[in-house]
What does this fold into?
Amino acid sequence: MHLLTIPETDVADLGSIVAAALAHSPAARALLADLEREQHIPETAVRDYYDRNRDRYLTPEALRRGVDPFNTAEPSDFFPYDHVREGIEQELRQAAARRAFFDWLDEARADVVYAEGHEHPGDPAQPDHEHRH
It folds into this structure.
């Protein structure tokens, strides 16, 4: 059995159907990896993310001092853009790949008809989708 190759902390963000597909399907994992390689993240998007999320790039010293990244921070309180740029680009590429994967999976299962009694319990298209056991 091949284990899920996504960190446990990220699984909750994926949703149960996506997590199950990635956990049990080598083809789904390969598709996600291909989608990630295909994503192009413009430099302007990477820089914009850094500028809008300054709180994520405070140095440990600035954090210990309780620096407010949006009001009282000095440039030396932040990791330089060049040091975090690659990580930001990777995060944005992953997010774009996941969105593309979600879109693909939604399209792939759009015409699926579940056998009676095997409907997804949370599917709002089902008349009893709020039923709990």
User: Anything to note?
Assistant: The radius of gyration is 20 Å. The CA atoms of residues 57 and 79 lie 5 Å apart. Helices lie at 8-14, 16-24, 26-38, 43-52, 60-65, 81-108.
